[in-house]
């Protein structure tokens, strides 16, 4: 992975180098950063660095090689980068946050197959041709629950409360990433999936 700040690469050590990994926390509050040619806002760069290790749970058993992904809650495209790194052919990036618009536009211009959609999720988006539906919308996934039963494609969804956890299980979803022990009796984030193939 190559992280660039202000056109200069961040290095693993400070041996005479102006920018380094140890400086990363100080740099994150400044300007946008780039990872392997993808540009993210400082907030979404932080999300990418913090969460990308868990995104293996987003992959269905056959992977996404040559497949199309509908990513609801796409941020600046950080999970799109993950899907493309794993061979996805196309990613519809649904993200209504205005902070993300310039980054998604830049990333779409630089990466063929990234198709940004700058609006809230609408049920008609389920008519887009996709093989995997990924949902990470910070608690608003409860709004999608009525539509998930009719989706025939693979689905992976991040759930933020026990109510949604229970509803997903009732819809036939399985936990991909179980709740941590300290979250098991309260509300916490978990990842659920329903693989169709």
Largest sheet: 7 strands, mixed
Structural class: alpha/beta
Q: Report the CATH C-level class of the largest domain.
A: Alpha Beta
Terminal residue distance: 32 Å
Our estimate of the beta-strand percent is 15-25%
How many structural domains?
2
Q: Give the full name of the CATH homologous superfamily of the largest domain.
A: Vaccinia Virus protein VP39
Computed Rg: 17 Å
The CATH topology of the largest domain is Rossmann fold
List the main descriptive attributes of the protein structure presented here.
alpha/beta, Rossmann fold, 4-stranded antiparallel β-sheet, 22% strand
Write the layout of secondary structure elements.
Layout: E1 3-5, E2 8-9, H1 24-27, E3 33-35, E4 38-40, H2 42-51, E5 68-72, H3 78-85, E6 90-94, H4 101-110, E7 114-117, E8 132-135, H5 145-148, E9 154-159, H6 162-170, E10 174-177, E11 190-194
Parallel strand pairs: 5-6, 5-8, 6-7, 8-9
Antiparallel strand pairs: 1-2, 1-3, 3-4, 9-11, 10-11
Quick recap:
The chain is built from 6 helices and 11 strands. It is an alpha/beta fold. Helix 4 (101-110) links the parallel strand 6 and strand 7.
Q: What does the model show?
A:
The chain has 197 residues and is of the alpha/beta class. The chain has 2 domains: 3-49, no CATH class; 55-194, Vaccinia Virus protein VP39 (Rossmann fold, 3-Layer(aba) Sandwich). It contains 6 helices and 11 strands. The protein has helices at 24-27, 42-51, 78-85, 101-110, 145-148, 162-170, and strands at residues 3-5, 8-9, 33-35, 38-40, 68-72, 90-94, 114-117, 132-135, 154-159, 174-177, 190-194. A 7-stranded mixed sheet has the order 7-6-5-8-9-11-10, sandwiched between helices. The protein has a 4-stranded antiparallel sheet with strand order 2-1-3-4. The longest helix has 10 residues, at 42-51. The two termini are 32 Å apart.
């Amino acid at each position: 992975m190559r992280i660039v700040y202000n056109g200069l690469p961040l290095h693993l050590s400070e041996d005479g180098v102006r920018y380094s990994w140890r400086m990363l926390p100080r740099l994150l509050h400044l300007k946008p950063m780039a990872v392997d040619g993808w540009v993210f806002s400082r907030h979404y760069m932080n999300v990418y660095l913090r969460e990308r290790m868990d995104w293996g749970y987003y992959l269905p058993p056959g992977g996404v090689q040559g497949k199309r992904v509908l990513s609801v809650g796409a941020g600046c495209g950080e999970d799109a980068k993950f899907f493309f790194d794993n061979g996805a052919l196309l990613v519809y990036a649904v993200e209504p946050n205005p902070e993300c618009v310039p980054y998604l536009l830049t990333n779409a211009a630089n990466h063929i197959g990234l198709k940004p959609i700058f609006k809230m999720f609408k049920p008609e988006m389920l008519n887009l041709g996709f093989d995997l539906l990924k949902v990470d919308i910070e608690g608003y996934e409860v709004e999608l629950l009525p539509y998930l039963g009719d989706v025939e494609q693979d689905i992976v969804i991040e759930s933020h409360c026990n109510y949604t956890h229970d509803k997903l299980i009732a819809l036939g979803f399985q936990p991909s990433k179980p709740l941590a022990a300290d979250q098991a009796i309260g509300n916490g984030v978990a990842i659920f999936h329903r693989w169709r193939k």
